[in-house]
Amino acid sequence: MAILSKIIRDNPLLKTIVPTPDDPNIRVLTKEEQERFCSVLSFYNTGNILAVNWATGMRIGELCALEKKRYH
């Protein structure tokens, strides 16, 4: 729509580079590593926020924007 409305000239998506799924820099934790990670979360002040991150996949900015509210 931006191109049709003459807001932009080119489609910026045509210049993007799609990451390959076989990126050697990305490594998934093994089941054992996941269990070890989860088993120590309660020992750290940031354990709850890390658990939320682990369960939801939120980005750092989203996690930092969370607010603690009490409901009665």
In short:
The chain is an all-alpha fold and 72 residues long. It is built from three helices and no strands.
Can you characterise this structure?
The chain has 72 residues and is mostly helical. It has a domain at 38-65. It has helices spanning 31-40, 47-56, 60-65. The longest helix is centred in the middle third of the chain and has 10 residues, at 31-40. It is flat and about 55 Å long.
Could you list some keywords that capture this structure?
72 residues, mainly alpha, 3 helices, 36% helix
Secondary-structure element order, N to C: HHH
Point out poorly predicted stretches: none
Strand content: under 5%
* Rg (CA only): 20 Å
SSE topology sketch:
Elements: H1 31-40, H2 47-56, H3 60-65
